Each structure stands twice: as C-alpha cells, then as structure tokens.
Automatic annotation (TrEMBL):
Pfam families: Creatininase
Obligatory cofactor(s): Zn(2+)
Superkingdom of origin organism: Bacteria
Record family assignment: Belongs to the creatininase superfamily.
Organism: Roseomonas fluvialis
Protein name: Creatininase
C-alpha cells in the first residue's frame, strides 16, 4: 500500500501486526529522450507493485540522488554525497521511530550506492533494525532477463524505455546508437560528458517491443517482492 493512501491511524494499526516498509530512492537526471525522472518513476512503481499483494507500506520515492556527471544537462539535479546520506539517515531514523524494523530500500539509480553502505553502518549502530538495499534493475534475475534480450542494456537506452517513462512528444529514434567509451566518460567533467553523450544515451537500441519490456519488468517486480518477503533476521 502507498503511504499516500494512508493516515497515521492506518499505519499505527499496520504496525501492530507487521514492521516492514519500503523506501524507494531514485534520481532526477537526463535520460536521453525519456523522462528526467526515470529512476524515481521506476523505483517507486516497482516497489508499489511488489509490495501491494503483501500489504506492506511504500513511502514516497526520494527523487534526488547523486548524479554530478550529468550536471551539464538542463534539469538534472545532484545532491552532495553527504547530503544524500544525511537525508537517508534521517528518513530511516524517522520510520524506525514509528516502529518499522525491517526496511527495504529499493534503489533505482546506480549513483546512490553509498546509501547501501550507510544501511550497513546503521545496523551496526542499532541492532533492532534490519535493512536491505536492493538495486531492482540489476538484481540477478532481472539483469539476466535484460541480458537475454540485449547485452547493451544501459543508461538512457531501451533498458529504461517503458511505457511509463516515455514522453509522448519525444518518440524514440529508430535503430541503435554506437556505445560510448564509459571509462573515458567517467574520467571526464560534466561539460565533456555532455559532448560525449550527445542525446544522453550510453548507446544501444533506443526502444524494444513492449512485450520484451514487460518480461523484464515482471522479473523486477517478482525479485523485489522476494526481497521484501525475506527471510529477514
């Protein structure tokens, strides 16, 4: 269930019989012709679909993450590492104060990896808590489904092109884009990154059939639900 559809009494009643919740983390950054909010949209949606049959509450997605490399693309937002970690710590502390003890962090953006390390630190500080950091898109079964479709799965290409991340006024181009030199890109400042990426995609096909995307999506939902089901310590 979405926290947005609950009031505080609903959550109090829920906590009397379960202590799990989901915290989605995303990012707002360029994704070629797709929505700037791809990572936030996908993290929240996969969390909601995974948690719904279990009746576990899903908090609103954290829409900002670490994306300094895309700073030269208008509309991209990046926090400092210390800012993201401070926000994540405060959010976790707040839900723990409410009574949640088993917390699944569903992450939709690779740059947010430091939150996973923070989760380990928080558990060392508070043994009452059990935290899981779940990169939904590259968990084993989901990533295998993507690789079976096309090994070029990457940022801003077909792999993130779902019906709910597309923009009606920006249809995907036909064909595929040559892959960029990711090692060189990662060693470059934002202005140079924009020059290298052009439209923003890392390369590969811009779009795949919806049936193929649904197979990958269902794998992601199932794997996220499995992480939520446990086992938990």
């Amino acid at each position: 269930m979405r926290i947005a559809d609950s009031n505080w009494r609903d959550i109090q009643a829920y906590l009397a019989q379960d202590d799990r919740c989901v915290l989605p983390f995303g990012s707002t950054e360029q994704h070629a012709g797709l929505s700037l909010c791809v990572d936030a949209i996908l993290a929240e949606r996969v969390a909601i679909e995974a948690a719904e049959p279990l009746g576990v509450p899903v908090f609103p997605v954290m829409p900002f993450g670490l994306a300094p490399y895309f700073a030269a693309f208008p509309g991209s937002v990046s926090l400092r590492v210390e800012t993201l970690l401070a926000v994540a710590r405060d959010v976790i502390a707040s839900v723990a104060a409410s009574g949640f003890r088993r917390i699944l962090i569903v992450n939709g953006h690779g740059g947010n990896a430091p939150v996973g390390a923070l989760a380990q630190q928080i558990m060392a500080e508070d043994p009452r808590l059990s935290l899981r950091f779940h990169n939904w898109w590259n968990a084993p079964a989901t990533w295998a489904a993507a690789q079976a479709e096309d090994p070029s799965a990457s940022h801003g290409n077909w792999f993130e092109n779902f019906p709910w991340t597309r923009l009606a006024h920006a249809p995907a181009p036909e064909g595929a884009k040559p892959s960029v030199d990711l090692a060189l890109m990662k060693a470059s400042p934002p202005v140079r990154v924009r020059e290298m990426l052009g439209d923003g995609s890392f390369g590969g096909a811009w779009q795949k059939p919806d049936a193929a995307m649904d197979r990958i999506w269902q794998a992601g939902v199932a794997e996220t639900r499995a992480a939520l089901q446990g086992p938990w310590p």
